[in-house]
Amino acid sequence: MRTRFDQQLDQLHVELITMGALCEEAIGLVADALSRNSTAKAEEISALEVRIDQKERDIESLCMKLLLQQQPVARDLRVISSALKMISDMERIGDQAADIAETLCYITDSEAESKSHITEMASAAGRMVTDAVAAFVSRDIHQARAVMAYDDKVDALFSRVKAELTAMLRENPENGEVCLDLLMIAKYFERIGDHAVNIAEWVEFSLTGKHAEENAK
After folding, report:
1. Mind listing the pLDDT tens digit for each residue in 86-136?
2. Residue numbers of the domain that contains 151
3. What's the rounded mean pLDDT across residues 186-193?
4. Which of 28, 147, 179, 209 is the most exposed place for a label (fewest CB within 10 A)?
5. Whether 30 contacts 101, CB under 8 Å
6. Around Cβ 130, how many Cβ atoms within 10 Å?
């Protein structure tokens, strides 16, 4: 019985890696579209969002089987409950990548300097998602905490983008709509970073039994 359970846990890890890779691919596609002033990848991103949603359902089903058909001990319960929390964050990442792709349709002609820093935000956020999932699979609490710390870089880039867009708007008030769209895209990437932090915090919970918020008290 335990051997079967361990096999299903291994499958859970594989499914989480796959879902994380889909999220990373979606982030990479929107970052590339942003840097190239292109909306050509919008359909690809939409298709990825569908796959991410399906993967969430698949993992939910697997977790329910582990809970109902097996006899998990306390450590196993933490792993399974953490996985359920993580896929919720990854599903939101897919939604936000799709939202970014939709917003890109309105700013393809913009050459704003802040675009380069938004692309840098995308790269940093994608790395955080990848590392957070890898930390779960490898049970590496140090990698999980490194993801939490790395969020400071995404936040700093967001502050820089805001400052640049404010200056751009001050100099050229007619660029108001473009500035707003770029700021919205930057905010989506900041949220993706926040979701990666959430994933890393659930990794810590799966290993220690304590959530990061509890450790901060």
Report:
1. 999 999 999 999 999 888 877 755 555 567 788 899 889 989 999 999 999
2. 2-215
3. 95
4. 209
5. yes
6. 18
Measured CA to CA, the distance from residue 85 to residue 182 in angstroms comes to: 30
* Among candidate residues 113, 120, 110, 107, the one with its CA nearest the CA of residue 39: 107
What count of Cα atoms within 13 Å lies in the side-chain half-sphere of residue 124?
Answer: 27
Q: What is the DSSP letter of 209?
A: S
How far, in Å, CA of 112 to CA of 163, rounded? 12
Condensed to tens digits (0 to 9), the pLDDT of residues 147-168 reads: 999 999 999 999 999 998 888 8
**Helix residue ranges, H only, 36-73:** 42-69
Backbone dihedral region of 154: left (phi > 0), alpha (psi from -120 to 50 degrees) or beta?
Answer: alpha
Spell out the alpha helix ranges (H) of the chain: 2-35, 42-69, 74-104, 114-138, 141-171, 176-208, 212-215
Q: Return the closest-CA partner of residue 186 out of 210, 213, 214, 166.
A: 166
Which amino acid type is present at position 126? G
CATH number at residue 109: 1.20.58.220
Two tokens, residue 58: 């698949």
Beta-carbon contacts of residue 105 (< 8 Å; ≥ 6 apart): 39, 42
Q: C-alpha angle with apex 82: 80 to 86, nearest 5 degrees?
A: 120
